[in-house]
Amino acid sequence: MEMNMEKKSRRPRPNLGEVAYDEIKAMILTGELKFGERLVLDELSERLNLSVTPIREALNKLAQDDLVVITPRTSHSVVQISAQDAADILDLRLLLETYALQTAGNRLATFPVSDFKHRFSEVTNSMDLKEFFIVDNAFHQAILSLSPNQRLPKLYSYLQNLIQVVSIQAIQSQNTDRIHEATEEHLELLGSIETGSVNAAVDCLQNHFEQMKSVVFRSAACERA
């Protein structure tokens, strides 16, 4: 009886490939690993205190998510999105979020405006980059949830990793200046949502993404110079 109880109390071992995947993905999506940075298996193995096998498994999975690039010689690097690719991703994001606002109907009045005003204000005071990305992602997910179309979140999820990469590239190119600018753009959008003006909210959303595209293209031009 005691042996049976002991067997039942044992917890299943974690999948080390999944552990490595979660850790490396978080390092990419917080900017801890730089875009275009070469990923060395032995270095990651030592850094995460895992063997090379789960690290390789994780990198292969991250390649399927478009976050890691694998060359023909089986070397790995963090994805680096071109300015044009970033613009295309932002255009698709604008289409999806505009649709969410335009189909929101009475749901627009339920948007947690005060909560997001408070959260963005805290980010501005702390200038915490990781916290900014958390709040930014939650904000845009909340916009999507306004639509009654249940297929929309799944469609958006395909782009979500790349969207965060574009956001990080835009922020890193201007450091804290872009956090201030993006926060002001979000607050303006929140004001339009609060008044119930869908057209004004869509205009603010379009301006927000156009500003992001401008930052990305300016950064690309500086790198070429």
Question: What does this protein look like?
Answer:
There is one protein chain. By secondary structure, this protein is mainly alpha-helical. It folds into 2 domains: 2-78, Arc Repressor Mutant, subunit A; 83-224, GntR ligand-binding domain-like (Four Helix Bundle (Hemerythrin (Met), subunit A), Up-down Bundle). Helix content is 72%, strand content 4%. The protein contains 10 helices and 3 strands; from the N terminus they run H-H-E-H-H-E-E-H-H-H-H-H-H. It has helices at 2-9, 16-29, 41-48, 52-64, 83-102, 113-126, 129-144, 152-174, 176-195, 198-224; strands at residues 38-39, 68-70, 76-78. It has a 3-stranded antiparallel beta sheet with strand order 1-3-2. A hairpin with a 5-residue loop joins strand 2 and strand 3. Helix 5 (83-102) packs across helix 8 (152-174) and helix 9 packs antiparallel against helix 10 (198-224). The longest helix is centred in the C-terminal third of the chain and has 27 residues, at 198-224. The radius of gyration is 20 Å and the shape is globular. The termini are far apart. The mean pLDDT is 87.
